[in-house]
């Protein structure tokens, strides 16, 4: 909700804020009116990834006051709604600037409210936070991260007792409690005598338990043993996968793991990349150079909070090429389902999950093996919700989303790059056993199921004006949907703002399907200042159709 930003800014000058913060507010007032408005015109809200924003002063920024007040709201929600004598929250953080400080503020406020805190001793990936929540049987979890956003951002993801990110109605109820904390003086930093929750540090013991569980998911130990000399380049892109991913690969028996020392440095400024997002080819440039120098077979790259995975493989000419998230997800799904079938592990209770904007190739693969496919809204929390709903009734095999997120098994309830790295490496060994590279395995899949092509184009629109422009784009598309896509008539329109028609939670997403089986999905991001256009085509002319679709929608 928009507010009188000048009045809110003045309340920070008049309120219980430190002098450094007040000086920054005065500077904005004097030199940057637009910046002042963007910093104070609203409160940060929970989107698909929780609380996330640019760091700085203001109610629409990530700073120690917003973090502390959000944590007080979270504590109030837990105390009011969870009736237990053993309330606890796990806390983790990545390499972003201020992540460590924000995490310890979170721990301090929770403990002051009588809630026991388990906090990691150093930076750890998102999946390790999800894993810890389940392992410790905690009430909730907090991960301080902004995932793969630019360096100016930080964020605050809240997880519930199932190890998954919060969803409705819990997320909105927590927001209501957060919004009720209108001043830093409402935050409890010191506990009443004898009522402190306590803060307990987690470390290697949790890492070891996690890696033990990851090993139980692996499917081809013989292939790994025969191809242990597979050459793998790994980069954490300055993030939190720096220790756990190489440790898992070594446990799997792979002996040739190459690093990029400059990118093993945990640094929230991400000095060696334009963006720490493995979805962008530039993020893997240094790793590909090392791969070419060493003659490596595979490149693995994880983002700062190590939940997303980007890979590069050698094509038929020996050149390193990047897989997109749909391709990686399809190859992993094919490998896992093939091996589960060969091992006699498949039955009617097993299932996979994909998001509505993820390739339909995954569905085609699953249907071959008689495995049920769930289609959910964008956001891994919705995949995790399916897993929760099916506990005791079915078994989650694997699932993913086009934005480079994938998970296998039920130990973690979020996208998990370390587990995915392990499975990609094992899949490469399994393919090698058949005389194939991962690239050739993908071509084999296309030959069997048909050629699928997907592409994503994002329009970045920053600030208040950007929010308004994105809203107008969605309004125009609802009022006047396209009559055709790439020359083929539109035969179906799905508006996910209408849950009574979709059977899914309400979401600001539009999908257009044509007679030829192509699809365009349009979705404003819940965590970034952008609107996303997802293009999907199938058939031998899919590449050409993608270009036609892009030209039709991106003006």
Written description of the protein model:
A 7-stranded mixed beta sheet has the order 1-2-6-5-3-4-7, sandwiched between helices. A 6-stranded antiparallel beta sheet has the order 17-22-21-20-19-18. Helices cover 39% and strands 21% of the residues. The protein folds into 3 domains: 43-202, Alpha-D-Glucose-1,6-Bisphosphate, subunit A, domain 3 (Alpha-D-Glucose-1,6-Bisphosphate, Chain A, domain 3, 3-Layer(aba) Sandwich); 209-449, Alpha-D-Glucose-1,6-Bisphosphate, Chain A, domain 3, CATH 3.40.120; 452-553, 2-Layer Sandwich (TATA-Binding Protein). By secondary structure, the chain is α/β, with parallel strands linked by helices.
Give the tags:
single chain, 555 residues, alpha/beta, Alpha-D-Glucose-1,6-Bisphosphate, Chain A, domain 3, TATA-Binding Protein, seven-stranded mixed beta sheet, six-stranded antiparallel beta sheet, 22 strands, 39% helix
Sequence-ordered SSE layout with sheet pairings:
Blueprint: H1 5-14, H2 19-31, H3 33-40, E1 46-47, E2 50-54, H4 64-81, E3 88-93, H5 99-112, E4 116-120, H6 126-135, E5 140-144, E6 153-160, H7 170-179, E7 199-202, H8 204-215, H9 221-226, E8 231-235, H10 244-251, E9 256-258, H11 285-294, E10 298-302, E11 309-314, E12 320-323, H12 325-342, E13 350-355, H13 361-368, E14 372-376, H14 380-389, E15 395-401, E16 405-408, H15 417-433, H16 438-449, E17 452-460, H17 463-479, E18 484-485, E19 488-495, H18 499-502, E20 510-514, E21 519-524, E22 530-538, H19 542-553
Parallel strand pairs: 3-4, 3-5, 4-7, 8-9, 8-10, 13-14, 13-15
Antiparallel strand pairs: 1-2, 2-6, 5-6, 10-11, 11-12, 15-16, 17-22, 18-19, 19-20, 20-21, 21-22
Helix pairs in contact: 1-2, 1-3, 4-5, 4-7, 8-10, 10-15, 12-13, 12-15, 12-16
């Amino acid at each position: 909700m928009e507010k009188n930003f000048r009045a809110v800014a003045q309340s920070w000058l008049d309120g219980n804020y430190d002098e450094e913060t007040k000086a920054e507010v005065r500077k904005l007032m004097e030199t940057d009116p637009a910046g002042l408005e963007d910093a104070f015109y609203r409160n940060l809200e929970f989107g698909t990834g929780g609380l996330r924003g640019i760091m700085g002063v203001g109610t629409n920024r990530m700073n120690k006051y917003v973090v502390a007040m959000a944590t007080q709201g979270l504590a109030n929600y837990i105390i009011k709604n969870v009736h237990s004598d053993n309330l606890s929250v796990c806390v983790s953080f990545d390499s972003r600037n201020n992540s460590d400080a924000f995490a310890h503020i979170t721990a301090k406020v929770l403990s002051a409210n009588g809630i026991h805190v388990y906090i990691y001793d150093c930076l750890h990936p998102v999946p390790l936070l999800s894993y810890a929540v389940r392992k410790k049987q905690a009430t909730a979890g907090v991960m301080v991260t902004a995932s793969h956003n630019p360096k100016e951002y930080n964020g605050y993801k809240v997880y519930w007792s199932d190890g998954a990110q919060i969803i409705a109605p819990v997320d909105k109820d927590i927001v209501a409690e957060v919004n009720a904390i209108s001043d830093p003086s409402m935050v409890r930093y010191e506990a009443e005598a004898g009522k402190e929750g306590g803060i307990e540090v987690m470390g290697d013991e949790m890492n070891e338990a996690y890696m033990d569980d990851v090993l139980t998911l692996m499917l081809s130990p013989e292939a790994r043993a025969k191809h242990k000399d597979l050459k793998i380049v790994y980069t954490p892109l300055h993030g939190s996968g720096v220790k756990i991913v190489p440790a898992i690969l070594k446990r799997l028996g792979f002996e040739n793991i190459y690093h990029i020392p400059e990118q093993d440095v945990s640094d929230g400024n991400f000095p060696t990349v334009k963006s720490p997002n493995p979805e962008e080819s530039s993020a893997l440039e240094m790793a590909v150079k090392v791969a070419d120098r060493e003659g490596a077979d595979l490149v693995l790259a994880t983002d700062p909070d190590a939940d997303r995975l980007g890979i590069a493989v050698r094509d038929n000419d020996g050149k390193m090429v990047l897989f997109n998230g749909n391709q990686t997800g399809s190859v992993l799904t094919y490998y896992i389902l093939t091996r589960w079938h060969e091992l006699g592990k498949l039955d009617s209770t097993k299932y996979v999950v994909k998001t509505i904007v993820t390739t339909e190739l995954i569905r085609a693969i699953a249907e071959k093996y008689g495995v049920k496919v769930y289609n959910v809204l964008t956001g891994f929390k919705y995949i995790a919700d399916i897993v929760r709903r099916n506990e005791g009734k079915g078994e989650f095999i694997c699932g993913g989303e086009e934005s480079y997120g994938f998970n296998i098994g039920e130990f973690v309830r979020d996208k998990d790059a370390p587990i995915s790295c392990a499975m990609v490496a094992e899949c490469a060994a399994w393919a090698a056993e058949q005389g194939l590279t991962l690239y050739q395995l993908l071509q084999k899949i296309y030959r069997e199921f048909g050629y699928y092509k997907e592409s994503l184009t994002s329009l970045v629109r920053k600030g208040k004006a950007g929010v308004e422009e994105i809203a107008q784009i969605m309004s125009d598309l609802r009022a006047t949907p396209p009559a055709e896509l790439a020359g083929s008539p539109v035969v179906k329109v799905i508006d996910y703002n209408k849950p009574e028609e979709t059977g899914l939670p309400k979401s600001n997403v539009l999908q257009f399907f044509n007679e030829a089986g192509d699809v365009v999905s349009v979705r404003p991001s819940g965590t970034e200042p952008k609107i996303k256009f997802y293009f999907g085509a199938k058939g031998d002319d899919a590449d050409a159709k993608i270009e036609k679709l892009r030209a039709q929608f991106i003006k």
